[in-house]
Recover the amino acids of this structure.
């Protein structure tokens, strides 16, 4: 996606969302396999916990294996998600998609991504302790973290976080509104699709059966993957818009 296609400063939230939706529709099929693998990686600790005979309703696990697996799988999910975002950029720019090239560039950026992600979590935690509002402000600014590192080549984690704040700050309310609207819309769509999926699975396999659970699980993963593709498109739209108005 080029800056010329992004909404300029002063344009409406609707145009920012329209840019994200257009990119999502154009790249969904190309990016969905990447996103599904990323979702599976992110869910690996939960799969391990359930397979070991525990329940996710018992609170946070105390098993060190779970947390090591969570750290490793989160890094893997971030890596695959980064490659998927690069695929969106290449495809929207009219370039041929190349999985080897996308994963190679994502691998070069991965150390910075992981370091910035850890610093992001720390800053959000500190902001949350400081009466919540600073955390909300930073969270909205950090929506462009991956594009800043992947597309601008900023390899210093601290400078990458600072760059996010400088980019989003002038249009913070517009970016926040776009994200909230997108999140609410996605939540409503997820509820509708989940209800339809449960009905379909019950008709095909019978409620409570193993096949029913498999169908619902597969549908949930696909739904989560589609959400990843959309929010990646939104992050790219926000980044492009912020750069064009800087």
């Amino acid at each position: 996606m080029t800056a010329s296609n992004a909404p300029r400063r002063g344009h409406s939230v609707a145009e920012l969302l329209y840019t994200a939706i257009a990119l999502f529709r154009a790249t969904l099929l190309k990016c969905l396999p990447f996103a599904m693998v990323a979702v599976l990686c992110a869910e690996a600790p939960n799969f391990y916990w359930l397979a070991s005979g525990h329940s996710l309703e018992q609170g946070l696990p105390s098993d060190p294996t779970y947390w090591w697996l969570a750290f490793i799988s989160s890094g893997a999910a971030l890596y695959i998600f980064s490659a998927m975002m690069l695929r969106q950029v290449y495809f929207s720019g009219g370039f041929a998609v190349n999985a080897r090239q996308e994963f190679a560039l994502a691998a070069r950026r991965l150390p910075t991504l992981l370091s910035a992600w850890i610093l992001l979590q720390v800053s959000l935690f500190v902001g949350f302790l400081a009466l919540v509002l600073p955390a909300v402000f930073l969270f909205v600014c950090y929506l462009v973290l991956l594009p800043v590192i992947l597309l601008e080549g900023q390899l210093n984690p601290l400078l990458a976080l600072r760059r996010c704040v400088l980019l989003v700050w002038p249009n913070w309310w517009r970016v926040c509104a776009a994200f909230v609207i997108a999140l609410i819309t996605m939540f409503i769509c997820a509820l509708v699709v989940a209800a339809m999926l449960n009905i379909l699975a019950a008709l095909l396999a019978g409620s409570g059966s193993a096949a029913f659970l498999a169908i619902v699980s597969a549908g949930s993963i696909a739904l989560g993957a589609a959400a990843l593709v959309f929010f990646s498109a939104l992050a790219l739209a926000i980044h492009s818009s912020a750069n064009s108005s800087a």
Residues 13-51 form the longest helix (39 residues). The chain has one domain: 20-245. Residues 1-10 have pLDDT under 50 and may be disordered. The two ends are 17 Å apart (CA to CA).
